Amino acid sequence: MKRYFSVALLSAVLYFVSVTQAQTLDNNPVSQQTVASDRFNPNIKPSLMLTKASGSIEVDGNLDDDAWRDAALARNFSEVFPGDQTRPPVEVSGMMTYDDDNLYVGIIVKDDPNLIRANLSDRDEIWQDDYAGIVLDPNRDGQGVYFIASNPLGIQADTYITPNNEDDGFSLLFRSDAQITEDGYQVELAIPFKSLRFPNVDVQSWGATFWVTHPRESRSQYSWAGINRDDPCMSCQLGEINGIRGVTSGRNLEVLPSLTGGGAGALRDAAAPASGFKNERVTLEPSLNVKYGITSELTADVAVNPDFSQIESDQAQIDVNSTFALFFDERRPFFQEGSGLFNTEIQTVYTRSINDPIGAAKMTGRFGTVDVAYIGARDNNSPLLLPFEEESRLLEGGRSVSNILRVKKNYGNDSFIGAILTDRRLDKGGSGSTVSIDGSARFLQKYMFGAQFVYSNNSEPENEELNEGLEDITFGSKGYTAALDGETFSGYAAKLELDRQARYWMFEVGYEAVSPTFRADNGFVRQNNDQTAYMWQGVTIYPEKVIPFIDRIRPNLVMGSRWNFDGLQKSFFFRPAVYFQLKRQTNVQFNWWYRQEHFAGQQFDGITAVNLEVNSNFSKRVNLGVETRVGESIARFLSDPEVGNSLDVSAWGVFRPTQRMSVQPQFSYSRLSEKGTGEEYFSGYIARMRLKYQFSRYFFLRTIVQYNDFSKSLEVDPLLTYKINAFTALHVGSTHDLDQFTRMEGAAKYFRQSNRQVFFKVQYLFRK
């Protein structure tokens, strides 16, 4: 009783401090930094009237073509962070014009060239550099915002931003170049109208702002349109560009043929290193992807015999003490593009559930304020994710057909209502379908209410071969068996959340429920029979005037409770934390966890742990980070679980000896030991090194070396890539798996290659 009273008291104190400071600061215009001592006034929803270019523009980064002389000029940029609508310490200006085919953007940043951070790297790897670009919201509703940018060496980057996601896997075709000059740098972009989606009207009016990221003492950000951090809707504060006439995104035809070839080999006997290597026949696999703009607002993609393999392998994760399936990000471009539409709080769409498709189709479009998206695929080997209360199982389901449909009605101001339908049918019997309704509504500027409800219906296949270890698991009030024995059942999941986002005081409060019979065959829901109520709130303090080396401090608190559908409390958790954003782009976060948990029929009280994370991008050449957790954890893998002492450490870094070379080490260590004796239940680590040398903007060599101490395995993956753009590229590489063996008992251990694969992939985009 005392514990709950203390928690409630601490929450009330934090709430009172948050509200008091928020009200005090919100009513103090000086503290808001909207007016500096020299009465700087930011641009509030500014506008540019564009005129058509008077001549041709060569994209070379020089900005000296005659056509730039009549371009619309953007000035009076303001700081977004660490200042709030204040004058930037460097001078920034932007220019914009257009012709029948392209939107042209020029940005000039006046700065000391010796301080500029710019590395020769692959596309979309510039986020720790200086960079400048344009934010475009053609529909002016915040539901689909482009960010298109370049670093000072002309290396491209782009993302597609939706209210609940920023898709960094998004890629569009555009041209870029840049120059580092005697007094800073300048960027030049040519963005084809064919690459964008916008309303089919004669005169365009788009939301827009020029954007500059300037990493120095702080990760400073500047915008042409003044962005008030007390307003969480950034798209609502964009400026506008007008005057673009007579352009259309057009009915584009893109044909992307590719050819993948290679050979694989493995030990004849995986347990006998002297058994010799057996090489398989060399294979050649052609594939074809066709994208057609049916209208300016509707695009269809079809992939025949697609090669959806990843060029870069997934990073290994430590799962020795986890009872749930691991999540891996989607890296395949076909599924990455437009993925933001399918992202919801309850993940009913996880495109890696389409594992090895024979063919796939995708359609995306916008009709006024309505977004529509569809994915269909015929899959060779579909995973079956079976969620339960305290564990999940991952099985092979065989061939299947999947259909996924998304419809979303947008209302602006980050508000929408939508629906998702998913359906997967296995060839050997069995199916899984979901129907989901979701939406969000912003009100009183700072508040957002979101909700989602999902209904699922599943019919299990009958497959005794996959039932090993499932016979004793039952679920649901009717006692369904986990074994694949042809049962049919339905379930539901729901989530409600209320958020407040503002400059000083923020909170989230929510409830989520996943019934015991809920499954999402095309999604990633790894636990059911679970209900969670939670609360998070924090206050942000800006002490720079008093403590010059701190940009902001954010004390915060999260607490909540989980229980199953029988009313049994499964856990109570409580975590106070404090986050510091320091100068030199250094971040520090410290938190303390307290948890009670009911697991495997036992009650575990008083589980505590402390967590510390530090990361810093303090120089051009070095970026470092470390996270450590020390405390108590349940040894879940034991037949009779108990609480032990745990230590988890992760460290990472990026070292750039030269502008062309990067070395990225990563290290993860985990140990769990018995509390009384100190005897280890387990300990081990995963070490990974990614080395890359960029010969030019288009040509690089990359090698990944990864050692897994838990499996005693070593992986070496070299890759040579020549990439003309995001879609036209040549890859030549190999993967080598080495396992650890011993010649005789007591002898030294050694590594021997157990599997290898050599491959190439060439693809070329034809666009009309």
Overall strand count: 44
- The Cα radius of gyration reads 28 Å
Shape: globular
Q: What share of the residues lie within helices? A: under 10%
Hey, roughly how much beta strand do the residues contain?
over 45%
How far apart are the termini?
71 Å
Which segments are poorly predicted (pLDDT under 50) over 5 or more consecutive residues?
A: 1-10, 12-37
Helix/strand class: mainly beta
Major sheet summary line: 24 strands, antiparallel, barrel
The tally of structural domains comes to 3
Describe the structure.
- It is built from two helices and 44 strands.
- By secondary structure, the chain is mainly β.
- It has a 24-stranded antiparallel barrel. Strands 1, 3, 6, 7, 8, 9, 12, 13 and 14 form a nine-stranded mixed beta sheet that branches.
- β41 and β42 (729-742) form a beta hairpin.
- It folds into three domains: 32-245, Immunoglobulin-like (Sandwich); 322-545 and 559-567, no CATH class; 575-687.
- 4% of the residues lie in helices and 54% in strands.
